[in-house]
Amino acid sequence: MVNKNKNLDHDLSQYVVFSLKDQKFGINVLESREIITIEEGLTNIPDSPSFVKGVINLRKEIIPIIDTEKKFGLNSDVDFADKKVIIVSIQENLVGLLVDEVIEILRVEKELISDAPEIVKNIKQKYISGIAKLEDRLLVLLDTKKLFSNKEIEKINNMDIK
Q: 107: Cβ–Cβ under 8 A, 6 or more apart, which residues?
């Protein structure tokens, strides 16, 4: 829902809306760097964490690509030909989140966002920051700062990609 009153822009947040397995998720646009497609294949890294699909060279920077479906406990497709990658910064590390499709940039009024249900918070999905109640659907909002545990970040940092 778009708020047309410019003075109330602080009551709005913008989200990159993407899909995974027909489910819609959003991350704050301020937490994303860019959206890319993988034009060349990924380089697999031996002994990398199971949720790391591989790495790419993006403008001379090595970026781990995260199998977001596997990270979220969804059945993971192996084909990434038509998928998109959202580049985000997590604890000063650039990582790419592999998603099925980037749908839109959506402005959401803060009053439409509620906390994640307690049942969800108590599971391992502490990275869900809230649920946006839109006119035609619910949108699961993610907190990229909580997507990975410190141990997982350490594993990503310790991958031998030099």
A: 1, 2, 3, 12, 13, 14
60: left (phi over 0), alpha (psi -120 to 50) or beta: left
Instruction: Tell which residue, 112, 136, 103, has the closest CA to residue 12.
Output: 112
Helix and strand numbers, DSSP H then E, in the chain: 3, 11
Give the homologous superfamily in CATH for domain 6-157.
Answer: CheA-289, Domain 4 (2.40.50.180)
pLDDT digit string, tens, across residues 52-96: 999 999 988 999 999 998 888 877 665 667 789 999 998 888 999
pTM score, whole prediction:
0.83
Two tokens at 83? Answer: 């998928």
Identify the H or E element spanning 26.
strand 23-28
Would you state the pLDDT for residue 85?
Answer: 95
What residue ranges do the domains of the chain occupy? 6-157
